[in-house]
């Protein structure tokens, strides 16, 4: 029994140590390929914010139209020009269906992974990692990810530097630290899950959801919201994706916020919502696992 307990603890440590700051500090020199050097915080951009925004809008709009028959409550509060835009998109995808009759008919919807493939040319999903004792990882399941493409998002509750996260952080391997000290808790279990659901319910405005909580379940609506399961690269496995911070602009369509897998711990109208996306550093083929470098050194 003691031997089994020790083996279990050792396996947990092997998975957790790559996010344990003291261990990282002592082992930086032994793992040069797990670091990413950035000349300045403002230059930590592989692609522009405009490209990130364009990709997210493209995917979210496709998800919205695919689930159009269930958006009736939201459509009632949208301006006529916005509703007309989605009806035009719908007519392109379903030219034989009359707009007024569409919501009353049986819709042949695609899965979220299929939507991602049809929109960006690839799909990603969680599966057991190819690394020993690494738990789950993220793989390209179909298509080709081109260099510079947004391949996933890091979901979770967003904490400012001064906000409490001690209890959520205990034994939590899913906390991501941004360059400015902002933290994102991407754990989909325990107290982290409870906190996210609470904030999600707090910010809802009638039929309008300000965030997506389905990444906490097995039925994920946003197929990109699995970035917290991307494993760290190693000396044997070079990084093929990297993290890039993105602040959601004020002009982001309110009807598409239901697909954002992040929410602020404290409600604040002044601060933009922080998101983190993963961007491909090279072309990534079907069947490959995604590997990133968690740690960035700003010189």
TrEMBL record:
It comes from the Eukaryota. Residues 120-295 form the SET domain. CDD domains: SET_SETD9 (cd10537). Gene3D superfamilies: SET domain (2.170.270.10). InterPro entries: SET_dom (IPR001214), SET_dom_sf (IPR046341), SETD9 (IPR040415). PANTHER family: C5ORF35, SET DOMAIN-CONTAINING PROTEIN 9. This is SET domain-containing protein. It comes from Rangifer tarandus platyrhynchus (Svalbard reindeer).
């Amino acid at each position: 029994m003691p031997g089994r307990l020790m083996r279990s603890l050792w396996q947990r440590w092997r998975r957790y140590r790559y996010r344990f700051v003291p261990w990282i500090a002592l082992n930086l020199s032994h793992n040069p390929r797990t670091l990413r050097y950035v000349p300045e915080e403002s230059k930590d951009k592989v692609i522009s914010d405009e490209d990130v925004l364009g990709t997210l809008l493209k995917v979210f709009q496709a998800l919205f139209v695919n689930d159009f028959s269930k958006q009736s409550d939201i459509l009632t509060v949208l301006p006529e020009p916005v509703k007309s835009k989605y009806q035009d998109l719908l007519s392109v995808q379903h030219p034989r269906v009359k707009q007024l009759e569409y919501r009353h008919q049986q819709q042949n919807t695609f899965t979220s992974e299929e939507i991602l493939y049809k929109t960006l040319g690839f799909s990603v999903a969680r599966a057991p990692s190819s690394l020993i004792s690494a738990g789950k990882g993220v793989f390209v399941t179909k298509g080709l990810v081109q260099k510079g493409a947004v391949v996933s998002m890091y979901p979770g509750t967003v904490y400012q530097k001064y906000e409490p996260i001690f209890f959520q952080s205990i034994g939590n391997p899913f906390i991501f630290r941004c360059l400015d000290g902002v933290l994102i808790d991407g754990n989909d279990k325990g107290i982290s899950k409870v906190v996210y659901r609470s904030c999600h319910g707090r910010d809802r405005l009638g039929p309008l959801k300000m965030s997506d909580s389905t990444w906490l379940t097995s039925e994920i609506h946003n197929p990109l919201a699995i970035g917290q399961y991307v494993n760290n690269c190693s000396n044997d496995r070079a990084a093929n994706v990297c993290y890039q911070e993105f602040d959601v602009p004020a002009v982001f369509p309110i009807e598409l916020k239901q697909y954002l897998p992040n929410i602020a711990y404290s409600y604040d109208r002044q601060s933009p919502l922080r998101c983190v996306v993963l961007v491909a550093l090279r072309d990534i083929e079907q069947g490959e696992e995604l590997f990133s470098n968690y740690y960035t050194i700003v010189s």
